[in-house]
Design a protein that fits this description.
By secondary structure, this protein is mostly helical. The chain is 47% helix and 5% strand. α5 packs antiparallel against α10 (259-271), α7 (204-213) crosses α8 (224-236) and α9 (244-253) packs antiparallel against α10. The structure holds s-citryldethia Coenzyme A. S-citryldethia Coenzyme A (SDX) binds at residues 240, 243, 274-276, 278, 302, 308-316, 363, 365, 368-370.
Amino acid sequence: MGKNTLTITDNRTGKTYEIPIAYGTYPTYGAYIKTADLRQIRVSDDDFGLMGYDPSFGNTASCRSAITFIDGERGILRYRGYPIEQLAERSTYLETAYLILYGELPTRQELDAWTAEVTHHTLIHESIKKFLDGFHHDAHPMGMLIGTVGALSTFYPEAKEIHDAATRRKQIVRLIAKTPTIAAFAYRHMRGLPYAYPDNDLSYTGNFLNMLFKTTELKYAPDPVLERALEVLFILHADHEQNCSSTAMRTIGSSHADPYSALAGAAGGLYGPLHGGANEQVLRMLQQIGSKDRVPAYIKRVKDGEVLLMGFGHRVYKNYDPRATIIKKIADQVFQVTGTNPLLDIALELERIALQEDYFITRRLYPNVDFYSGIIYQAMGFPVEMFPVLFAVPRTSGWMAQWEEMLTDPEQRISRPRQVYTGADVRDYVPMEQRGGARVA
Ligand code: SDX
């Protein structure tokens, strides 16, 4: 192969430029030029120079990251080099969170210390219950989570010391420990149930189930099949490189805001129906379709551009989302405990037809992580409104890892993209009496 450079000739001036090409881990997946190198390409001395234009950043690397690798063509997802299939099979959520945050699988001593640290931060300040009590009875739990996580910044003012590694780690532990508690308390508020406090004898997901579903028993005993299924679902949702909400986390964090405010913003991004809110919309879509025999009619509406097939498609995966494959397998295990979910038949029929239809094949649309997860969550007893919350809880470790990596990256500064201005040229103010007739937008 020749030199690692791009030779660009600007035909406006006949000048030629040599732009270096650089690489990440994989030369065939991550070769790049620094867009700033394009600014030297000008037609005159007062020319600003060339920018790259990339709405929604479909082909723009915002950072160099070592956390997660996705190969969308081959349906590959790895956390710190470990294939998601192996982690889902053999790891736990807290072990995976440690890996994502600190780059290596923990030793026994490291995992025990990490687990103890998180376990002993699951309680939330008693005043926070007043926030949750203040929400209306039918408030969406994602709105409660976003509002309450943001409010945590007022309880831990030292979190603004974002340059101090020990302070950052303390907030990372607090957020990973407290998001399940806030999520569970939000659920209990929705149901009009008393809050169930953390039980430090249980695993991370066992305690989450305890805080959600404990009733009058003295000690809640999580079903081991559901506990493990939640562990795997949490592992699958932990991180996904530079998605919409991780980009929000990095962008807000780049202004050196505290991590609670940044994470509230990231959760806001995740809430959207095109992102983490899709799992809730999948269930509403399946309920709206109602039966297998009405699937063809819905597919027609999709092909006519009337509706989206929620849970299908992905900006990066142009093949099957590897997480969807694993989630589909978990469904069978969960249904053995909970009984099957009739919506599964509708989902399977949707997938069967969609994977044969030219509309989906040509657009390379496959089931993504959200297509099957909601069916499992509903079978486990969660209301559909809780589904995005069940995405945000495990994604907290990914958001915090992206935040930490951004803050310690010497190449990163405050996020401030440029624009291509397409508005009016300069013009003088027009007095009201000279403006003429009504112009109602
Ligand atoms: C997540 O980025 C991540 O990594 C996200 C995530 C993570 O872990 O953080 O993986 C989690 O957000 C998964 C995605 C969940 N969202 C959904 O399931 C919502 C439905 N999906 C679509 O909205 C869409 O596929 C996106 C948003 C996921 C991706 O959108 P893109 O990359 O901008 O693709 P596009 O909208 O440009 O679509 C390309 C074409 C279009 O058709 P044409 O204009 O070319 O004719 O495909 C069509 C779209 O209309 N299309 C769909 C479709 N998704 C894309 N048509 C019907 N149903 C769909 N679901």
